[in-house]
Specification:
Number of helices: 1
Number of strands: 0
Order of helices and strands: H
Number of domains: 1
Structural class: mainly alpha
Strand content: under 5%
Shape: rod-shaped
Oligomer: single chain
Length: 44
């Protein structure tokens, strides 16, 4: 395999890791939002 193939693979791996982290943060935000909404509804 050429060095450019390794560089592309490394860049792709970095991009996939970054997008996975972004989606995990989005999921966590929804999860926490639903918890806060459930607590606020329970208080009323």
């Amino acid at each position: 395999m050429s060095s450019t193939g390794v560089a592309v693979s490394e860049a792709q791996r970095r991009r996939v890791r970054r997008s996975a982290l972004l989606w995990a943060l989005v999921a966590a935000a929804f999860y926490l939002g639903f918890i806060v909404m459930a607590i606020l509804r329970g208080v009323k």
